[in-house]
Specification:
alpha+beta, Uridine Diphospho-n-acetylenolpyruvylglucosamine Reductase, domain 2, Uridine Diphospho-n-acetylenolpyruvylglucosamine Reductase, domain 3, Enolase-like, domain 1, 3 domains, five-stranded antiparallel sheet, four-stranded antiparallel sheet, about 40% helix, globular, binds flavin-adenine dinucleotide
Length: about 290
């Protein structure tokens, strides 16, 4: 199907994009990589009268390290994140998540900002920004504000971003050098959205006890979740296989997955438990390797 007709605008400056959003209000939609929006327009589920293409705003596409944090412009493509040596060195789980998204075409066009704002309950970045306590920098007619990842996702396909705001930057503070992260995803077929996924960042002290832990999961409900109860369970303890099993049990009991074509709620609870246990074990293995090197 073809989309309903629309006016196409392509500003090159962020300020102009904000002004256009203010001017056209709910009639306008931002276009980033188009990997979610364009299919929706073709199905006529989305019918914006005005499309504001932000891909010519070069100031929104960057990956840089600054003041102990990695900053990613919202228009940074999945492939750039997947292939960035800085990201691979400093936040491996983010590169792992990007490499799991869709197929080559989707990764070449899709952007981290678009994926986070789309807030698909099975999207890959949600778990990562929650595990790493990421922050979303947003700009609108009322100025700039920072939304912590934990406050960003409110429901499936819904965030706390206002309709006249642009997500401009994702900021992730760098973890201690002795901590290691991993992102694991269970999918029905390669390139599909996750049935369940887990992002785990784990650090060990000199005695081998867990002194840093961040966990985000998808597949446990309508939004990606920060697994606070599992983080509390692991923090300060020596991580044994019995403790990992307990963590799996805890997430299984608290998850409220949505039953859909990817599986029943009961199956998804078990899938989430399994992928989380695997991710904790792998992050522990990586943290132990770091500690002994
Ligand atoms: C076949 C296929 C497979 C896929 N598989 C996966 C997968 O496995 N995992 C996964 O996570 N995703 C997957 N995706 C989705 C993909 O990651 C998209 O790139 C992403 O959801 C949307 O990003 P985009 O840049 O294409 O945004 P667009 O489609 O252009 O926009 C999406 C929404 O976000 C808004 N928006 C975009 N950028 C901004 C911004 N900076 N500020 C405010 N609002 C903004 C738009 O107005 C629109 O409402 C898949 C998509 C396809 C087509």
């Amino acid at each position: 199907m073809y989309p309903a007709s629309f006016e196409y605008l392509a500003p090159t400056q962020l300020a102009d994009a904000i002004e256009l959003l203010r001017q056209y209000g709910d009639d306008a939609k931002l276009l980033a990589g188009g990997q979610s929006l364009v299919p929706m327009m073709k199905l006529r589920v989305a019918r914006p009268k005005v499309l504001i293409d932000i891909h010519r705003i070069g100031a929104l596409n960057y990956i840089r390290e600054e003041a102990g944090a990695i900053r990613l412009g919202a228009m940074t493509r999945h492939v750039q994140i997947e292939e960035s040596s800085l990201i691979r060195e400093k936040i491996l789980m983010l590169a792992e998540a990007a490499s799991e998204i869709g197929d080559t075409q989707v990764r070449n066009r899709g952007t981290i900002g678009g994926a986070l704002v789309e807030a698909d309950p099975c999207g890959d970045y949600g778990a990562v920004v929650l595990a790493l306590n990421g922050q979303m920098k947003c700009l609108g007619p009322r100025g700039e504000r920072i939304i912590p990842a934990a406050d960003f996702f409110t429901f499936a396909y819904t965030t706390t971003l206002e309709s006249d705001e642009i997500l401009t930057e994702i900021v992730i503070s760098l973890a201690d050098k002795s901590s290691a992260g991993v992102y694991l995803k269970l999918e029905k077929v390669a390139g599909d959205f996750a049935i369940a996924s887990a992002a785990v960042q784990l650090g060990l002290d000199s005695d081998g006890a867990c002194n840093e832990i961040g966990i985000g999961v998808t597949g446990g409900g309508t939004v990606p979740q920060k697994a606070l109860s599992v983080e509390s369970l692991l923090r300060g303890k020596t991580i044994t296989s019995a403790l990992i099993d307990q963590a799996g049990q805890l997430i299984q009991e608290s998850a409220e997955p949505i039953e859909d074509l990817r599986g029943s709620a009961a199956y998804k609870k078990k899938a989430l438990s399994a992928i989380l246990r695997r991710a904790i074990a792998e992050s522990l293995r990586r943290a132990e390797t770091l500690r002994s090197s």
